[in-house]
Design a protein that fits this description.
Length: 291
């Protein structure tokens, strides 16, 4: 029985419980090479499709990656990028919001980094932080906003944000964008191993900060926030992919599958050349040939 991307997708149909989604798919280590070859094939396919998407310029793609620390966001994004033409793709990382960003509505910074049609934008974290880290730390209470916006019970506040996000993603869909949402689902034990590696390997020290341990201590709260947010924001046009991230090579294959699917769904085509433009091309060919 082969594993398939759809085993890890949730589009809002039926129930959702994060606990049903493994952090480790336990794919036999002997399969690694085969999956790496499949990923390489997907990377080539992505490049072909991106070339057409760029020329076609009718749809834009926003692919976002959410995860706990050390789940492999950065390396996954690096791999995805490596197959694409830099001219049509960029990455935006959502760090702690600046004072300017905090003085705007929370979707503002995402809006300012949306790609033009024909382009792909990769979000390293995303506006989902506003229902994840903000929920876990109850940051809404510190916002300089009117009482009517922040003083309601927690569930109401976040249910409203989930609805706003669903509406925003539907708005994007209706305006020619496709949204891909990936949660790299790493296990707590695997995170521990990777943190230890970051501490033991000097070349990885820069990736670790003691603050990461504070977030790790809030693991159950984060899982609860992920569970609720995925359940409430997955939709037909903007499904979530809950990717088991303990085996990096398997996670990368799944992400490459998701990228290929979304680009194929755009069905990009090179623009058709009109008969007049064709005649013009023939004329140019003759001119060049006669030089
Ligand atoms: P890495 O550690 O792998 O370099 P990272 O994405 O964890 O990458 P950091 O600079 O360590 O980058 O962390 C960014 C931090 O900003 C995260 O802890 C994230 O939760 C936080 N953040 C992002 N968006 C928001 C937000 N809207 N409100 C509050 N905190 C946010
Ligand atoms: Mg970090």
């Amino acid at each position: 029985m082969g594993l398939d991307l759809k085993d890890f997708a949730y589009d809002g149909e039926g129930g959702f419980d994060l606990k049903d989604y493994p952090t480790n798919a336990h794919v036999d280590a002997g399969e690694r090479e085969r999956y790496e070859l499949l990923t390489a094939g997907n990377t080539r396919r992505m490049a072909e499709l991106q070339d057409k998407l760029y020329a076609d310029a009718r749809e834009g793609v926003v692919a976002m990656f959410q995860a706990m620390d050390a789940a492999g966001k950065d390396s996954t994004i690096k791999r995805v990028m490596s197959g694409l033409n830099p001219q049509g793709v960029s990455v935006y990382s959502f760090k702690q919001p600046s004072a300017e960003e905090l003085s705007h509505d929370y979707l503002w910074r995402a809006v300012t980094h949306l790609p033009r049609r024909g382009h792909i934008e990769l979000f390293n974290r995303s506006y989902y932080e506003d229902v994840l880290v903000v929920r876990v730390h109850q940051m809404q209470h510190g916002y300089a906003m009117p009482k009517r916006c922040v003083d309601e019970p927690e569930d109401e506040f976040f249910d409203r944000r989930y609805r706003q996000i669903r509406d925003f993603e539907e708005y994007l869909w209706e305006n020619g964008y496709r949204v891909l949402k990936v949660f790299l689902n790493v296990g707590r034990d695997e995170q521990r191993k990777r943190f230890l590696e970051r501490i033991d390997d000097e070349s990885k020290n820069w990736k670790f900060s003691s603050g990461d341990l504070k977030e790790r201590d809030l693991w159950p709260q984060y899982m609860d926030a992920y569970d609720k947010c995925i359940r409430k924001t997955a939709s037909r046009h903007a499904p979530w992919y809950v990717v088991p991230a303990d085996q990096k090579w398997f996670a990368r294959w799944l992400v490459s599958e998701a990228m290929v699917r979304v680009l194929e769904a755009c069905d990009p085509r090179y623009p058709e050349v009109s008969p007049e433009a064709k005649a013009d091309l023939d004329r140019c060919r003759q001119e060049l040939a006669g030089e």
